[in-house]
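Slide 14.
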Amino acid sequence: MKPQLLFTFLLLIFGSRPSLAGTNGILEGFVKDKKTGEGLPGVNVLLVGTKQGTATGQDGRYEIQNIRAGRYEVRYSFIGYQTYVMRNVIINPDLRTRLNVELQPTDVELEEIVVLREKPLIQKDVTGTTFIVSSEEIEALPIDNVRQVIGLKAGSTLEGHVRGGKTSEVVYLVDGLPVQDVIQAEQIQTYLPLQSLV
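Slide 15: predicted structure.
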């Protein structure tokens, strides 16, 4: 067997990895002591209802990768501190969600603190204009296809094109995959079931 063919074969076998683009996001942030403001090492950070979680590092920083896009409840627990629960945390695909938490030290076991998180006004790691449609919005709207979803967003026409640009200058993504005809640069007239948009 030729060395070049063997190298190509080994590269294909060991170099291939499953693609996670377009479906997973990252949760990160710091956990600090509410009184001193110092980072807390070893705090348990858990996505409730999943098996995903982590513990904070020496400086109180944590990061959970490969989280499927959606809404989550995040629980922070540490011995000697009151448990803190953040609800309605939205994880967007290919973006970082930052949650900084301060834990209240306590000597007596108290009930956990529950906080309902609102969507941030500015997403700092997004460099362009993006519109994200959640599965809850899709289920509530009387729509049949992707074109109707696009037509409901600001700056787009009822035909599903963005104003001020050519059709070839815009990309439409569903679960991270483009839904455009590459040759004619038009949006594919697909009537996808709503489950495929979620």
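Speaker note: The chain has two domains: 24-116, 135-197.
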